[in-house]
Write a structure and sequence with these properties.
By secondary structure, the protein is mainly α. 69% of the residues lie in helices and 5% in strands. The strands form two sheets. It has a four-stranded antiparallel β-sheet.
Amino acid sequence: EGVTDEILQVHDVIKTANADSAFAVSITGQATLDAEVKAVAERDLARGEGIGISVALVVLALVFGAIAAAFLPIVLAIAAIIIALGATAMLGQAFEIPFVVINVMTMMGLAVGIDYSLLVVSRYREERANGLDKVDAIAATGATAGRTVLLSGMTVALALAGLLIIPDSSNRAIGAGSILVVAAAVLSTMLLLPALLSLMGDRVNALRIPFIQRRATRVSTSRFWERTTRIVMGRPVLSMVLAAGLLLAAASSMVDLHQGEVGMDALPDGLMSKNAYTLLQSEFGYGQDLPALVVIDGQTDLAATQAGINRLEAAIAADPGFVSTTLETHPDADLSLLHVRLAGDATTDQAMAAVKRLRGDYIPDAFAGAPATVLVTGKTAQLVDQKDVNDTYTPIVIAFVLSLSFLFLMMAFRSIVVPIKAILMNLLSVGAAYGLLVLVFEKGIGADLLGFQQVEVIQSGLPLFVFAILFGLSMDYHVFLLSRIRERFLETGDNAEAVAYGLRSTGRLITGASLIMVAVFSGFALGEMVPMQQLGFGLAVAVLVDATMVRCVLGPASMRLLGTWNWYLPNLLRWLPEVHLEAPAAVEPAPAGD
């Protein structure tokens, strides 16, 4: 914070000097870049919050048909964000928290906080419409929708916990912040919301919107969802083929996904750090003073050490990826520092490839047999190491998330078929999101229309983060839909009727919830920072695809075809503890296979 304050004072001096001078003065460097990026991120945060809350309020009003009910989820989401930010501030006393964590937490808090409250308020109003008094309706809501919210929140947290495995402070900070805001959203929905519903009672339906109110209270008779249910359940094979085909087509571009650092060229125009970078690049051949630092631990006056340095400088001079070198010696510490200035942007693939050549070829050749230890550090070297860490831990994180999600869903739904299908469909959604990211940002298809900037790479680490968030969030809809289906199945024992009922009764809510998430994520995607554009867009399209194509078509169609085999659990797994999502049933129909 102190560095930011000091560099802003320098910026003020430069602005004053430029106003009174015949020539222009610009400044660049890490401190200037960090200060300007933080300012842009704050603007993006305010814009994202404004757009997300505004659109969410409209969608909630359309879903509920009452303004009072529409405001409740907004209030709960804001409360969850405030609680989580307070907890994060406490962690910030011991650990450095990047500002991007605040953006991600706000985005996640609005999305899950509003969605969880939407599910609970909807179920409460449904129970009241069925004739239960206020207290009994709240109790019934807690026994059904409340348990679903708890399971959904735990599933999201488990998916995000995978980010804590990666030995990288930024990933861990984002993962921890996201888990905190999800936990706060679950607690607010389960503890604060029932209290508010008890205080409001039927006033939750205050300020009704007449025509919409009548439709909102008759979810099960919605013509659109009646028609959709008949189509999906009547033609399950065709529905599956079409939905899966579209998702696979979208995912096909994933093979061209290329991760890297979104560099200076992708920053918003008008930033002083970018202007100075462009000037340095055009006039001097390097845009940022972020050299690779070669640390040579060896006796400085030893002939073998000096010969190694000379050979290394010669190799560097012959490589167009480098601009110049500056040697600094410390004989008293037996240490030499070689500052190697990189051509162009120090965060590009070209700069990282140059550092890899420096580490893998030039240094081993130059110091072969010399009694010295030679290492390379600096901004670019750090990015190379981060990418290697991400590449190493990505399969570990994916295996961790899939394994825990499988076990958790298996215990919740007493089936091995349900979690297998959930994982496969979620992976299909993730693949479609990756493919669309490549099409829009790398290939530029529709980028101008959407107001995005085409770049050569997807921000390094972002695909893994999208996987963790999307895998957790998509479970919200899956768990909500499946809990309704299983609840009906335990009542009737008729799988086909239970699937049709679940799709018909949750279609409106799942669509509304997904539109809210899409609105929140899109609000942040409309910011100026390309990494946030990629993250917001990727999550928005993935949630939209997942909540429509997967949850409302592919999932129900596959359940219709599998019949009672959906609930198959081998006898050898019957010992697993049960996690009840629904109110206790008097008799549970025997699953298939027993």
